[in-house]
UniProtKB/TrEMBL annotation:
Species assigned in the record: Arthrobacter terrae
Annotated protein name in UniProt: Pyruvate dehydrogenase E1 component
Reported function: Component of the pyruvate dehydrogenase (PDH) complex, that catalyzes the overall conversion of pyruvate to acetyl-CoA and CO(2).
PANTHER family to which the protein is assigned, alphabetical: PYRUVATE DEHYDROGENASE E1 COMPONENT (PTHR43825:SF3)
Domain Pyruvate dehydrogenase E1 component middle: start-end pairs: 495-717
Regions crossing the membrane: none
Reaction equation(s) it catalyzes: N(6)-[(R)-lipoyl]-L-lysyl-[protein] + pyruvate + H(+) = N(6)-[(R)-S(8)-acetyldihydrolipoyl]-L-lysyl-[protein] + CO2
Pfam families: PDH_E1_M, Transketolase_C_1, Transketolase_N
Source domain of life: Bacteria
Name of the gene: aceE
Enzyme class name: oxidoreductase
EC numbers on record: 1.2.4.1
Cofactor(s) this protein requires: Mg(2+); thiamine diphosphate
């Protein structure tokens, strides 16, 4: 097998396996191209080549698409712009940054602390960040509004080290790394966490894959704000710093086409290609940079590779026969990693020694000179050229693939080692070598005195290097990262738009989904905040009845609508517009959550609040994209999450995959999510008004929440708002909806959402058939009741001398007679959340297990959550208490054929909203 043949998949394959009928003529053409490059430069040669390719296509000459280029820098040396900074000064304080970042992690790993950290990521990535900090990253005081930067999570020590040199953090802060409670007031979070450091970090990124996805939608959201006339974002860039191993996450690649389709040339991905995952090589047998180049190019992105440092330029210029490039092309990543773990002599023998030509190229170089042939990611000029080209490119997003060495400069124990990601501390010898490499003025005696606490280094704010660094940041608009929460205030409390929710549906039936849509449509017309509402919908708008918004609000598309719509003559025609209000993400829940996050944090990223309302199949929310909602909570996103077609038995024709019996339980695990399960339109109105006031009214102590509201597709007669409604109780989680009218043994029926009508029916059956008087409570939030109960317990626990506060659910039920029976269209664990706070006997009915396709009546009878099941369970508890005859429950079960799924009568047919 010929050298490199087994790796042919990593070559461009333009001539691979094609016969050369006239090698002499081929050589003449190549010689002509070489002369052109030598005399007129690569830019002219590039134009000639493109012209020839265009002509070849016109003449039907089959030329394959070039998805990968040779394993060299995209920008030729003769096209590199001049580096505008003082490289010597910038290198000086980069050394201090690298030292302080490593020392911070090392000190945090001393025996009495041992909280860990990552040394190697920033050590290898410092150049790609510092070129950005010194010349590209614009702060919030920049006239253009500032950039949004998604920092690679494991590189956080480098950002803290820079903040230390800038005077934003002190040594006590650095020593609080990963000790957020024990060093409160001087604590640094492990990774970028805005919720933990709300004035510092802006974007959480260490949950792999979510950073790339959110960066894409952040760039789209910037354009959305601009195109809708809310804010001029034309001079703002979005940067996302990612790892090559991270690109294996499906979320990292799955949304690239959106950025290309929307022509998001305000977006720059910078992928740190150190060829390593957390445990070893990314593609030991292949080439991850080539793979990513092909993938991004195929997705429609502009690709810039930064492979080699300036030390390689002369060697490549001498490579007239292409022997060196051929070796570069055919060497796999596993070998490249090994080369950086060995020596210059090893590289001479195993890399350059592959061909006589390449061996001769380095014959005059010493082993040290060979070792100092750097990779592109450690060269200021190469990185600067790439960033400048990226920010100036128009019409496409750009990815910059930067080759680096993980653990660069940390010594032989760290550099390029498979275990380097997990290595958190340096030996005394490592410290001394690292100090010498970086020329840090700290003596051996100081290091030897306490190897676990080597000192940080700061030359003082008057040092010329620090003054230079601060001047660069001042010119670019201030320090980054920085988060600001101040935003334009919205007047929501006086709005009359909520009145429509109080009216009910009259003689017509309407599901709570439709009740929500009617309210939603009215809110979008509100003069104060309507234009700031961002409806976000996967490809199910017609399912939810939101297609009524298409003709007026229109679907956002930065390219407009350049086709004749097939339904253009219909009232609900599909209409797209550059200034459209609706973000229609397609069949893409992950992208929808990313869009929700970008819009829901616009108040902090831009000072311009948007109100995202994300509507989706409830089953495909927290179950499918739960991690993204946690990231949204960390970023302190605000907005409404509408779980439509909720419940395990409401959409039973769709079957298991659509049967949601647990989303409120999953939502309850996220502390940033306020969860409601309303039964009627007027409940939805009060919940949304309260949500808007809390999140955007400017008076609540904790506005950084998301409201999850479940709505159903089962039509019922929507009642108008009752007189004297206890709105405060409704918002706290439960209120007395229908007191018992008759006399007899008492019971309390608790129900939420679509199950409230079942409880009302059970109330009537209990009264008519068994002379039992039952009160019906509408439970708008099992989760908020539980949280209130837990808070009361915590308060009593921590304040044993104070008078205990009773939970709201306890005070609501303590004077109510009889057992308490709870029912919902969810698994038992949902209403079971409040069991410990319910006084007296408590029984729960729920839809546990898998969903299935059948009628609503049959499904509810199967799960024993229908009206008659509520009746029988109530009678059982009353019999157990001795308040009715012990034989009654069995008689009732037989009377209602409780074990016969075909005898169920609870719920109507159909599934219209």
């Amino acid at each position: 097998m010929a050298a490199g043949e087994e790796n042919s998949h990593i070559l461009s394959e333009l001539t691979h396996r094609l016969p050369d009928g006239d090698p002499e003529e081929t050589a003449e053409w190549i010689e002509s191209l070489d002369s052109l490059i030598q005399e007129q430069g690569t830019e002219r040669a590039q134009f000639i080549m493109r012209s020839l390719l265009q002509r070849a296509g016109a003449q039907s000459v089959g030329v394959p698409m070039v998805t990968t280029t040779d394993y060299v820098n995209t920008i030729p040396a003769d096209q590199e712009p001049d580096f505008p900074g003082d490289e010597d000064i910038e290198r000086s304080y980069r050394r201090w940054l690298r030292w302080n970042a490593a020392v911070m992690v090392h000190r945090a790993q001393r025996p009495d602390i041992g909280v860990g950290g990552h040394i190697s990521t920033y050590a290898g990535a410092s150049t790609i960040y510092e070129v950005g900090f010194n010349h590209f990253f614009r702060g919030k005081d920049h006239p253009g509004g500032g950039d949004q930067i998604f920092f690679q999570g494991h590189a956080s020590p480098g950002m803290y080290a820079r903040a230390f040199l800038e005077g934003r953090l002190d040594t006590e802060d650095l020593d609080g790394f990963r000790q957020e409670k024990s060093k409160e007031g001087h604590a640094l979070s492990s990774y970028p966490h805005p919720r933990l450091m709300p004035k510092f970090w802006e974007f959480p990124t260490v949950s792999m894959g979510i950073g790339p996805m959110n960066a894409i939608y952040q760039a789209q959201s910037n354009r959305y704000l601009h195109n809708r006339g809310i804010k001029d974002t034309s001079d703002q860039q979005v940067w996302a710093f990612l790892g090559d191993g991270e690109m294996d996450e499906p979320e990292s690649r799955g949304l690239l086409q959106l950025a290309a389709n929307d022509k998001l040339d305000n977006l720059n991905f910078v992928i740190n290609c150190n060829l390593q995952r957390l445990d070893g090589p990314v593609r030991g047998n292949g080439k991850i940079m080539q793979e990513l180049e092909a993938f991004f190019r195929g997705a429609g992105w502009n690709v810039i590779k930064v492979v080699w440092g300036r030390e390689w330029d002369d060697l490549l210029a001498k490579d007239r026969e292409g022997a060196l490039v051929e070796v570069m092309n055919t060497t796999v990543d596993g070998d490249y990693q090994t080369y950086k773990g060995e020596s210059g002599g090893f590289v001479r023998e195993h890399f350059f020694g592959q061909t006589p030509q390449t061996k001769e190229m380095v014959a005059d170089l010493s082993d040290d000179e060979i070792w100092n042939l750097k990779r592109g990611g450690h060269d200021y000029r190469k990185v600067y050229a790439a960033y400048k080209a990226a920010t100036e490119f128009k019409g496409k997003p750009t990815v910059v693939l930067v080759k680096t060495v993980k653990g660069y400069g940390l010594g032989t124990h760290f550099e390029a080692r498979n275990a380097t990601h997990q290595m958190k501390k340096l030996t005394l010898a490592d410290l001394k070598d690292f100090r010498d490499l970086l020329r840090i003025p700290i003596s051996d005696e100081v290091l030897e005195k306490d190897p676990y606490r080597p000192p940080y280094y700061h030359p003082g704010m008057d040092a010329p290097e620090i003054k230079y660094m601060m001047e660069r940041r001042a010119q670019l608009g201030g320090s980054v990262p920085e988060r600001r929460a101040a935003h334009k205030a919205l007047a929501v409390s006086e709005s009359k738009s909520f009145d429509i929710a109080k009216r009910g549906s009259g003689k017509q039936q309407a599901a709570t989904t439709m009740a929500f849509v009617r309210l939603f449509k009215e809110l979008m017309r509100d003069k104060e905040f309507g234009a700031r509402i961002v409806p976000i919908i996967p490809d199910e708008a017609r399912t939810f009845g939101i297609d009524a918004f298409f003709p007026t609000a229109k679907i956002y598309n930065p390219n407009g609508q350049n086709y004749l719509s097939v339904d253009r003559d219909l009232v609900l025609a599909y209409k797209e517009s550059t200034s459209g209000q609706i973000v229609h993400a397609g069949i893409n829940e992950a992208g929808s959550v990313a869009a929700f996050t970008a819009a829901g944090t616009s108040y902090s990223t831009h000072g311009e609040p948007l109100i995202p309302v994300y509507v989706f199949y409830s089953m495909f929310g927290f179950q499918r994209t739960g991690d993204a909602f946690w990231a949204a909570g960390d970023q302190m996103t605000r907005g409404f999450i509408i779980g439509a077609t909720a419940g395990r038995t409401t959409l039973t024709g769709e079957g298991l995959q659509h049967a949601d019996g647990h989303s409120p339980l999953l939502a309850s695990t996220n502390p940033a999510v306020v969860t409601y399960d309303p039964a009627y339109g007027y409940e939805i109105g009060h919940i949304m008004r309260a949500g808007l006031e809390r999140m955007y009214g400017g008076k609540h102590s904790d506005p950084n929440v998301m409201y999850y509201i479940t709505v159903y597709n089962e039509p019922i007669t929507q009642p108008s708002e009752p007189e004297g409604l206890d709105v405060e109780a409704l918002l706290k989680g439960m209120y007395l909806l229908a007191p018992a009218k008759g006399q007899g043994p008492r019971a309390q029926l608790l129900a939420s959402g679509v199950s409230v009508p079942w409880a009302l029916e059970a109330q009537q059956i209990l009264a008519d058939d068994w002379n039992v008087a039952a009160d019906v409570w509408s439970v708008t939030s099992w989760t908020e009741l539980r949280r209130d109960g837990l808070a009361a317990e915590e308060q009593e626990f921590l304040n044993p001398k104070a008078e205990p506060r009773l939970p709201f659910v306890t005070t609501s039920l303590q004077d109510s007679a009889g057992p308490v029976i709870a029912v919902s269209d969810y698994m038992k664990a949902v209403p079971d959340q409040i069991r410990q706070f319910v006084p007296g006997d408590y029984a729960v009915l729920g839809a546990d297990g898998f969903g299935f396709s059948d009628t609503r009546q049959a499904a509810r009878r199967f799960f024993k959550i229908d009206s008659h099941s509520v009746v029988v369970r109530t009678l059982q508890l009353l019999a157990k208490r001795g308040e009715i005859d012990a034989s009654v429950p069995a008689l009732a079960a037989e009377k209602y054929q409780l074990l016969n799924v075909n005898a169920g009568t609870t719920g109507g047919a159909g599934g219209d909203s």
